[in-house]
Amino acid sequence: MRARLRVGALASGRGSNLRALIEACRAPDYPCEIALVLVNVPGAPALDIARAAGISARLIDHREFASRAAFDAGLDAALRAAKIDIVCLAGFMRLLSPGFVAAWEGRVLNIHPSLLPAFKGLDTHRRALEAGVAIHGCTVHLVTAGLDEGPILARAEVAVRPGDDVESLAARVLEAEHLLYPKTLREFARARLAEAAVTPPR
Ligand code: GRF
Description:
The chain is an alpha/beta fold. Helix content is about 35%, strand content about 20%. The chain has a single domain (about 5-195), classed as Rossmann fold (3-Layer(aba) Sandwich). The chain contains six helices and seven strands; from the N terminus they run E-H-E-H-E-H-E-H-E-H-E-E-H. The chain has a seven-stranded mixed beta sheet, sandwiched between helices. Helix 1 (about 15-25) links the parallel strand 1 and strand 2 (about 30-40). Helix 1 (about 15-25) runs parallel beside helix 6. The protein starts with a strand and ends in an 8-residue tail after the last helix. Bound molecules: 5-O-phosphono-beta-D-ribofuranosylamine. 5-O-phosphono-beta-D-ribofuranosylamine binds next to helix 1, strand 5 and helix 6.
């Protein structure tokens, strides 16, 4: 049985979840290594975080491609060249095309800053506050063709406090994300490694 799966992380921005995953992978018994980071936005801090950690990292700028499918084909080629087993979206702000999602079905994880199925899409903290929910949180799910709709792997609840604003609530949810994503990836990867064979993507 292999000891570690090769994770490819896709990011667009700040990279705090990427950092949390990188740190988790430092534990000798963690069942993954971040083998490749792909960033689609020039100057995104996520690229520097990856490089500072000594991880192979590349900018693949979506604006240099004629279509979403062509951009996704570029991602796919880079992931396959690096023999990636699992893809983790870490603040990746692009929708993936149906072809990419089908090819990597069951092996792309995403973290979303709400308790799915509530508050799919953007601006989740403001919408949660406006809805007056008492409990908010974050979700790690498998990526399917529908936005924020794939099977849920794990969720973490965060209580909304009196006086919370978007910033204070977002900060507490982000802390929860940084625990939930590494924990869920660990469980997901352990389960996959325990399967008879880890097959390559289609
Ligand atoms: C996080 O809130 C994550 O849930 C969402 O995008 C944000 C990315 O933040 N998908 P960071 O780049 O990981 O700091």
